[in-house]
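Minutes, methods subgroup
Present: GH (chair), OT, SY

1. OT presented the first of two proteins processed in the latest run. Sequence and structure tokens recorded below as shown on screen.
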Amino acid sequence: MSDKAKKIFFTLTIVVPFLLYCVYYYSRMLKNAPYKFTEFKSFVIQYGTSDSLVNKYDSKTGNYQYLNKKDSLIKTNILLKNSELLYLHRKAADLGFWDFPSDERGDSTKYKGLKPVRYYIEFNYQRKSKKVVFDESFNGDPKLKDANEGLIKEITSVLSEAEDRKKNK
């Protein structure tokens, strides 16, 4: 068998089936992905001390309430742009939010001398939803804790930018 025939045989028996399988496998994975932005409905974030989650935002209604630095409850309505919602959806996917455990609570008595802040994050889609409860005092995997904190930081920064945009109109 010549070298050219060996290369053709190798290509037809190994490389081509492997490439066909990759195309088949990843097309099925993308088609059946449970969390697609085209099916995105809304997200909810609530945070505060473990006994009262007074800071809340719901992207479906746009209702946003939070305590300011003077402990006054501020209620406003902020509707996020589609591009901002897409950004948060992609950020959640990048950080692995869909694989987070739903309960990431730690010791709720005292954390650094204070009650720990508890976060409730929920992403809702047509077929599924994902809910995560995360405490600042969570002492599990540090990478998981960093990913939670990163997602919370992104959500709060998008909300503050949207609020600033609304104030400047």
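2. SY then presented the second protein from the same run.
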Amino acid sequence: MLRTALSKLVLPVLAISLVISSCDIIGSDDDDSSIQPPDNYEFTRDGESTVAYPGQNDRLDMVEEMKAYIATAHEGEVISEQALNDMFENTNGDGGGNFSFTSDRDLKSKTFAPDLDNNLFTDIFADAEAASENGSNGIRAQDGVAGLLEREESGNDILVDEKGREFTQLVEKGLMGAVFYNQIFNVYLTDDRIGPDVENSETEEGANYTSKEHHFDEAYGYFNAPVDFESDWPESRNDELRFWSDYSNGSDEQLGFNDKVMEAFILGRTAIVNDNQEVLDEQVDILYEELELISAATAVHYINSTISQLNNGNTGEAFHALSEAWAFVNALKYSPNRKITNDQVNQILNTDFGENGNFWQVTPEGLNNAKATLVETYPDLESVQDQL
């Protein structure tokens, strides 16, 4: 399926001589050493892979372990603001002893600068510790009071702030936007990293990739899909999906995200090997559009879920879903090419989701207004808005 789609896309666009068997040579528009796009996100030189993104893998692992740490508060444990900051900064290379692994990478230095300036995450960490202290003392969450809140369907507790927002979602999904999307959109897919002046003829010292190849791979690393990811992904392999690739798959049946995003990544990386900036730029435009749309579609999905749970009288389930919706709407702000305005994002987060962002004050009218704004801004969602 993916091979057919790629063949249709690349042959008329590249307009160069293609050699099926050679992923080993960096080609250009005017020679015959160019390569065809491979079926999977796999590229080699001299028989060895040129793809590497260990830093991205480490940061995804960090977010997973931060979420797991916060979730211990759901059982009444007190969590530490200092521990969360140590994990955010990766103190001593092991998150201050809180990570199960060591790394010389960190999350904080890769976080969207305005969020750092506004202390978005450090404030969340401080609030999480205070809320967990309430929870450990048996204080139940209510309007204006942070603590534990039961999810009615599972019977499990979640830790929420005084506005009803779930801390695991604020941190996990928040970092998916502020780090992963921020790095894709504002760093690795920019001209500074993959533009025409970036080194693409010589490999980096001690590595088997050029700087331009590596930068694009790092963007792919934040999407973090299996190299053979595609639409109609088998459920038996869902445990291979992480963060954004998982949410791409979540709306794939309705919008075909998996093939669209993978085709753009594969074609873009092939264009770098072929030294074809025009095709690369075309694929980058597609990635900006489709990755933003994944976030919008996922937000609509969770708004739908929130409406359904509120109709059933399930406050805990509704606030869990709305916390996810909050984070995915917030993630829309990280794309410099976003279709939605900051005013629209703020309207959804701080009015439609409850006055001053207070979930305890949310209404069906506000939720439907938020949904309408997203659907109007992203017309691709119109025909599937109720199926997401």
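Chair's summary of item 2: Confidence is low (pLDDT under 50) at residues 1-29.
Next meeting: continue with the remaining queue.
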